Amino acid sequence: MRQGLVLLSVPAILMVTIWKAEYIISLLNNLPKCYFHKVTGGYCPACGNTRSVIALLHGNVLSAVKYNALIPYLSLLILLLYIELFFRFIGREVKIIPRSNAFLAASVLAFMCYFFLRNVFSVLAPA
């Protein structure tokens, strides 16, 4: 029962988000600038999140990755989890995302390196 509600509510939420994208973007543009970047000149792990979400709402995945790769990565994980839930709902058990500590550790380590390296190499900066 609960799986069916999730399967129906996610597309509905996605449609409302796309329908109200310009309103959401106007709200996001009013968020304050990053205090960490203002004080230190470096990029915190959240720097570029707002621009990344806006780029995704406009359908521009490459720009979203440029601003902050974490948002498209998490969006992809959520999509894959939704697909797994759909298959579970129709009676097939499909695992797309690995459920191991090694996968989690590799993901966390990769993003820790990414957050460090984008402060070193300007090509990775969310400019």
Walk me through the structure.
The chain has one domain. The protein has 127 residues and is mainly alpha-helical. Helices cover 68% and strands 0% of the residues. It is built from seven helices and no strands. Helix 1 (2-19) crosses helix 6 and helix 2 (21-29) runs antiparallel to helix 4. It has helices at residues 2-19, 21-29, 35-40, 49-57, 61-67, 70-89, 101-117.
- Provide mean pLDDT, rounded: 90
Q: Uncertain spans, ≥5 residues at pLDDT below 50?
A: none
β-sheet strand percentage: under 5%
- Say how many strands there are: 0
Number of domains: 1
- The shape is flat
SS element count, helices: 7
State the distance separating the first and last CA atoms: 45 Å
User: Helicity range of the residues?
Assistant: 55-70%
Output the radius of gyration.
17 Å
* Largest sheet composition: none
Q: What structural class do you assign from the helix and strand content?
A: mainly alpha
Order of helices and strands: HHHHHHH
